[in-house]
Design a protein that fits this description.
Helices cover about 25% and strands about 15% of the residues. It has 3 helices and 16 strands. The chain has a 10-stranded mixed sheet, with no helix packed on it. The chain is rod-shaped and about 175 Å long.
């Protein structure tokens, strides 16, 4: 009897102990990994902490492990979205994809460790490729495509990286390819497309590969230390224009070319050449040469105008002098006529 009483007293204690143990699963699964609320989980500890979240799909070990009330998330791959608790509308496919995301919404990570470091401070990022945007911590609305795309990026927003490592904190930047790896670019839809308004020639920084157009900086509000070019343009008078052909590997057509040799220009004025990523002279700043030509033309024009002014003054002086000569000539003629009239009449001598 005493043993029965002891057993009866032990049962409530045992029940309390079981109640205090961690729940093996927040919600009881339906057969074949189905849960209430249109949730699906397949794999050890998949959707382990689910409580009220709906329409989640977790396939793989530890996928969406900490997710409690986050909804409409999809995780496929070992530990994909493992830290997500309240984040919604995320898709992670690959080993540890979106690994640290907790509450951030709307991101897509496809590839092993893609968006690995993104936390609850981020959202709406798209990373496709091994380790794409792996170190993004708090940046949002970024896009990365390709292996290691945007791997250097950490905090900036609204960037696009296609097979480019990116920079840590940049904002609103597009980077395509890598200077060392990629040497040619072909984009359809540009050639034979004519723009007639608000146009400017596109130029390339040969060191960084950045695109831009020089005319954007023509406004005075972008400049300081503005002063006349004066004699600085006289350097172009020493330039030696040449005709040439590009080597076969650069121009299969071998068409005739006209221009300058960068190394020769560099000797005259180093500021007139562009440089490659190796620091060597690469091209000629023809837009600067044109500005210097304009300055020299204006100087010559001013000289011509001054000479014309001097010539006009000289012509006026000569004309005035001619009139004075004519007046003097007329006066001399009158004096001469008077002298002739004042001469006494010739006298006749008598022979008587």
């Amino acid at each position: 009897m005493s043993h029965k009483l002891k057993l009866i007293g032990f049962i409530p204690l045992l029940a309390v102990c079981f109640a205090l143990l961690p729940r093996a699963q927040a919600l009881s699964p339906l057969p074949d990994g189905g849960y209430p609320g249109v949730n699906v989980a397949e794999g050890t500890n998949a959707l382990f902490s689910l409580t009220t979240g709906v329409a989640n799909t977790a396939i793989g070990v530890n996928t969406l492990f900490h997710n409690s009330d986050g909804s409409t998330n999809t995780a496929v791959g070992d530990a994909a979205l493992v830290s997500n608790t309240h984040g919604n509308n995320n898709t992670a496919t690959g080993f540890r994809a979106l690994f640290k995301n907790t509450t951030g919404p709307g991101s897509t990570a496809v590839g092993s460790q893609a968006l690995f470091s993104s936390t609850g401070l981020t959202g709406y990022n798209t990373a496709i490729g091994f380790a794409a945007l792996q170190n993004n911590i708090s940046g949002s609305d970024n896009v990365a495509l390709g292996r290691d795309a945007g791997i250097n990026h950490s905090t900036g927003d609204d960037n696009i990286y296609i097979r480019n490592d990116g920079l840590a904190n940049e904002v609103g930047t597009i980077r395509i390819g890598t200077q060392i790896v990629h040497s040619s670019t072909y984009i359809a839809g540009i050639a034979n497309t004519t723009l007639t308004t608000n146009t400017a020639p596109v130029v390339v920084d040969t060191t960084t590969g950045q695109l831009g157009h020089a005319m954007a900086t023509s406004s005075q509000r972008f400049k300081d230390d503005i002063k006349p070019m004066a004699k600085a343009s006289e350097a172009i008078l020493s330039l030696k224009p040449v005709t040439f052909h590009y080597k076969q590997e650069f121009d299969p057509t071998r068409s005739p070319q006209f221009g300058l040799v960068a190394e020769e220009v560099e000797k005259i004025n180093p500021d007139l050449v562009t440089r490659g990523h190796d620091g060597k002279a690469y091209g000629v700043r023809y837009e600067a040469v044109n500005a210097m030509l304009l300055n020299e033309f204006l100087k010559e024009h001013q000289t011509v105008q001054e000479l014309k002014s001097v010539a006009a003054k000289q012509e006026a002086t000569i004309a005035q002098q001619q009139k004075q000569i004519e007046v003097l000539t007329t006066g001399l003629q009158k004096v001469n006529d008077q002298l002739e009239l004042s001469k006494p009449a010739p006298q006749t001598v008598s022979n008587q």
